[in-house]
Amino acid sequence: MIQASNITLRLGKKALFEDVNIKFTESNCYGLIGANGAGKSTFLKILSGQLEPTSGDVIITPGQRLSFLQQDHFKYDEFDVLSTVIMGNQRLYDIMKEKEVIYAKEDFTEEDGIKASELEAEFANLNGWEAESDAATLLNGLGIETELHTVLMSELNGSQKVKVLLAQALFGNPDILLLDEPTNHLDLDAIAWLEEFLINFDNTVIVVSHDRYFLNKVCTHTADIDYGKIQLYAGNYDFWFESSQLMIKQMKEANKKKEEKIKELQEFIQRFSANASKSKQATSRKRALEKIELDDIRPSSRKYPYIDFKPNREIGNEVLTVTNLSKTIDGVKVLDNISFTVGHDDKIAFVGPCTLATSTLFKILAGEMEPDEGDYKWGITTSTSYFPKDNTAYFDCDDTIVDWLMPFSPEKDVTYVRGFLGRMLFAGDDGMKRVRVLSGGERVRVMLSKMMILGSNVLIFDEPTNHLDMESITALNNGVIKFPGVVLFTSQDHQFIQTIANRIIEITPNGIIDKISTYDEYLENDEMARKRQVMNIDRSDDQE
What we know:
CATH superfamily of one domain: P-loop containing nucleotide triphosphate hydrolases
Radius of gyration: 29 Å
Number of helices: 18
Helix content: 40-55%
Strand content: 15-25%
Largest sheet: 6 strands, mixed
Structural class: alpha/beta
CATH architecture of one domain: 3-Layer(aba) Sandwich
Number of strands: 18
CATH class of one domain: Alpha Beta
């Protein structure tokens, strides 16, 4: 058990947390959620002892060991992989090193012998004899091959280091496990293995993640950070989201009924208070009125954008035909004789080991790049909107957001454009910000505003969930689900693909794999698909 008792953290005059009281118990996995800047990672640091609160205490059951996922990927570069994992139980590692020093002595004394026997007893108690095999099992489960177990951490790439540090956090069956974004840079197989590990883990887990699919799989409870407090709910992320929306709706409806009752009572009092025969009844009604209090509905500090893509024209039967498309970039043939057709009901997720291939295809289809060979033809009823993975070049100017969007608007009216910006949480004077200084998340929201303004019936998305918080991802996800047109997209968000796509196309060096199915069905039915996704992660690290 780990408990926060009256935790307050002040940053200057602002209190990030104010008198937080919450208890996390055994056998439960808690998803810690909250808006960007709410303090999720900060709270984990307080629980782990990495950060001191302004006031309050963190209470851990005596004798229990806490472990957390390290974020410094270079911290263990001078150590080998197995040793790094075993350091997850620092006391065990220290004993191993102390034993080595004692046994290496040439003048071994009686005192050394007594000390060695004490260490051996503690070593056995901590399952020290199984330490290396347990560490190896974790590493293999996460996809770190046996031949890498003895190399230095400095020799590993980014995704491999993440896996080793995750194995370190899991090592030795900790009583309390804190994980901050554990699925970042993990391939599908490693995520699936981690999901299974946490589902079967009997101790306390607290996890922060933007991966909704992962939270839904592993979490038994949801801890929501809002207004500097933490509210605990039973159930996973989706259950929390649906129930919280329903709760707000019900509270509003209850208040509406109360407001109607109050109005009715007020009218009665006003009409009959002067009437002697009704005065007693009016007094009674007045008393009833005084007792009615509207529930204090405090809306969440979270702000959900309103994303709704409405096509200006219904799409016809002929949408897109791609014929023998090829493209070579920097001497590498990324597209090789690609052919497919798109129907008017298609929402196609493009997956595969080479993300460059998909990005190149999308650029060609959006008219931003010419193919070397082959051609493509859009239907006469189609209109397209393109969301690029890298939008930097689009914002290399000194325009304000409003000025930047105006050319795409059918109505050259500032108020009309500001309406779309309001949907995307740009309030007041935010529309006068220069696009050059926008953050990554703000740029994404401007691009989505542009796509809504254009009213196209074909949407092309290249990794649209990058730089977005969970609220924006949820809003975008729902917006694309209900979009009545054609969608061509790629994403690393499992739930985004699973809930949107009705067709999967994978671009491989040997052509395309084209299947009418959901993402989960595609992965289940094609074992090689999962392996190709692993290649995807590794290649991304190499490119970085």
